[in-house]
Design goal:
The complex is a heterodimer of chains A (112) and B (114). Chain A is an all-beta fold and 112 residues long. Helix content of chain A is 0%, strand content 49%. In chain A, strands 1-3-8-7-6 form a five-stranded antiparallel β-sheet, with no helix packed on it. A five-stranded mixed β-sheet of chain A has the order 2-10-9-4-5, with no helix packed on it. Chain A starts with a strand and ends with a strand. The model of chain A has no long low-confidence stretch (mean pLDDT 93). Chain B is mostly beta strands. In chain B, 0% of the residues lie in helices and 49% in strands. In chain B, the strands form two sheets. In chain B, strands 2, 4, 5, 6, 9, 10 and 11 form a seven-stranded mixed β-sheet that branches. Chain B has a four-stranded antiparallel β-sheet with strand order 1-3-8-7, with no helix packed on it. The N and C termini of chain B lie far apart (36 Å). Classes of the chains: A mainly beta (112), B mainly beta (114). Chains A and B meet through strand 4 and strand 5 of A and strand 4, strand 5 and strand 9 of B.
């Protein structure tokens, strides 16, 4: 199965700074690369995703970049705000895999 | 549109008791999943289903059972509860093969075994 790692496991930034979380995966057949956000005590929710035919996607303050050759993709959050504080999970997927595995998670704290 | 609904939200079980965590979705999704999330940890896949009548094991299936008699419902059964099963349980669903679609999560069930 897919071996998924996230770095860093914890990240603290000052409000207004940028944050970057990296996800590495092992299955070269992966072609869908989503990021989920889980606020404290809440359910995970999709915040952004990218497919293998696209190198970068932006949605306001968040962006995802993909490097298929190196088998990693990253979540970028600019102008961070306290409400960005959460745990973020990556979940790379293949078209044929039925299982849905998540990365180890990154706990982001934005300090006001 | 309710999405994915889990019941109960909280439960305390004594060691050796059994219980069923309920999960239902109204989005006509074929794929459904059960995860557990221990404090400060990631999501571990327990069981999943690709359609009514079809279930399969995930990473951590021991001590659990599932069934999928309808498209909407995917209950998780705990037999002989143990303290190691203290966790938050999430049910999720997706439209088709998870290769290119979003997973929708229920609000979670916080289970404590004492």
């Amino acid at each position: 199965g897919e071996n998924v790692e996230q770095h860093p496991s914890t990240l603290s930034v000052q409000e207004g700074d940028s944050a970057v979380i990296k996800c590495t995966y092992s299955d070269s057949a992966s072609n869908y690369f989503p990021w989920y956000k889980q606020e404290l005590g809440k359910r995970p929710q999709l915040i952004i995703d990218i497919r293998s035919n696209v190198g970068e996607k932006k949605d306001q303050r968040i962006a995802v970049t993909l490097n298929k050759t190196a088998k990693h993709f990253s979540l970028h959050i600019t102008e961070t705000q306290p409400e960005d504080s959460a745990v973020y999970f990556c979940a790379p997927r293949t078209n044929t895999g039925n299982q849905f595995y998540f990365g180890t998670g990154t706990s982001l704290t934005v300090i006001p | 549109n309710a999405g994915v609904t889990q019941t109960p939200k909280f439960r305390i079980l004594k060691i050796g008791q059994s219980m069923t965590l309920q999960c239902t979705q109204d989005m006509n999704h074929n794929y459904m999943y059960w995860y557990r999330q221990d404090p400060g940890m990631g999501l571990k896949l327990i069981y999943y289903s690709v359609g009514a009548g079809i279930t399969d094991k995930g990473e951590v299936p021991n001590g659990y059972n599932v069934s999928r008699s309808t498209t909407e419902d995917f209950p998780l059964r705990l037999e002989l509860a143990a303290p190691s099963q203290t966790s938050v349980y999430f049910c999720a669903s997706s439209y088709r093969a998870p290769g290119d679609t979003e997973a929708f999560f229920g609000q979670g069930t916080r289970l404590t075994v004492v």
